Amino acid sequence: MFDHPEFDGHETIVFSRDEASGLTAIIAVHNTALGPAFGGCRMWPYPDEGAALTDALRLSRGMTYKAAICDLPLGGGKSVIIGDPERHKTPALWHAMGRIVEGLGGRYIIADDVGTTLGDLAVMRAETTHTAATTAAASQPLAVTAYGVLCAIQAAARCVLGRDKLAGLRVAVQGLGNVGLPLCGYLHARGAELTVCDIDPGPVAIAQQDFSARAVPPETIYDQPMDVFAPCAFGAILNDDTIPRLAARIVCGGANNQLLSPAHDGALAARGITYVPDYLANAGGVIDFHQESIDDAPDAVLAAVARIGIVTEEYLGRAAAARETPQTLTDRLVRQRLAAARLAAV
């Protein structure tokens, strides 16, 4: 495991199996220098344990970077459960998962993610106090990640395209799930022209009807005329095959780990495409969790998430002035903040 390509000095990795409930889970705590590790629980029918571990390692590191770049007193963690959320969910499974989280003594705070819901967290709270969405207001669905991506797109449009408004901006949204579909709603309300794709025809039809979106087959989304490409589905979609096909000036979306490898940040820059680091654009969830402890009213949460736009504009400007990519700049700042926190704790 220590030679795993995605291992990045992770502090703790827990492999757990509960035979009675059928739970097979991995919890990865990446870094707690700034505070307890926060991150969602993803339930997915991974093909094997290696794929599940890779996901946990990559996603937990991303959570560390999200919290650090937004100056939050939190670290990064992630949990994954190997299983089909449509078939394998049971109360016993969530009770078992809650006991594992409780056993970490608060070093990891669990939230919902792909394949899990706020209701699942509520079941886990019978076993652990270390969950997100513990208040009545926080338990109400709010499209915080999509709103944060919108704020990042607005900032990038100002910095890169010189546009203060989104009217007429051509945005291609890849994936219409819990982030992509509400993002389309936010963009449509501001006059953007949408091109969308998803493997599920249901949300595509909604986007067409409600947001006047133009639908294209998923495999052609990279080839569309666009100003902004917003990946909101799977990771590793920016690679040697897709980057040469993009006509966008900006890539800014809600998906995690959009780059197949760090080298693809440079490949985008070589084509004149500004890449907003995914861990900045999609940091709305971790900001939401922190805001719960201050004021969990929806307006207060969205106001806190709007800071993503301010941070994005600042770092795009600093990166341009330094003639480096935004990802290079923000990666360095995160590492400096983590190192300083470690030094202060000694």
Proportion in helices: 40-55%
Globally, the shape reads globular
Helices, by number, come to 12
Name the beta content range: 15-25%
Describe the protein in words.
- This protein is α/β, with parallel strands linked by helices.
- The chain folds into two domains: 12-62 and 74-124, 3-Layer(aba) Sandwich (Rossmann fold), CATH 3.40.50.10860; 144-335, NAD(P)-binding Rossmann-like Domain (Rossmann fold, 3-Layer(aba) Sandwich).
- Helices cover 42% and strands 16% of the residues.
- It contains twelve helices and eleven strands.
- The strands form two sheets. A six-stranded parallel β-sheet has the order 8-7-6-9-10-11, sandwiched between helices. A five-stranded mixed β-sheet has the order 1-2-4-3-5, sandwiched between helices.
- Helix 2 (91-103) crosses helix 3 (118-124), helix 4 (144-161) runs parallel beside helix 11 (307-322) and helix 9 (284-292) crosses helix 10 (298-305).
- The longest helix has 21 residues, at 49-69.
- The radius of gyration is 19 Å and the shape is globular.
- The model has no long low-confidence stretch (mean pLDDT 95).
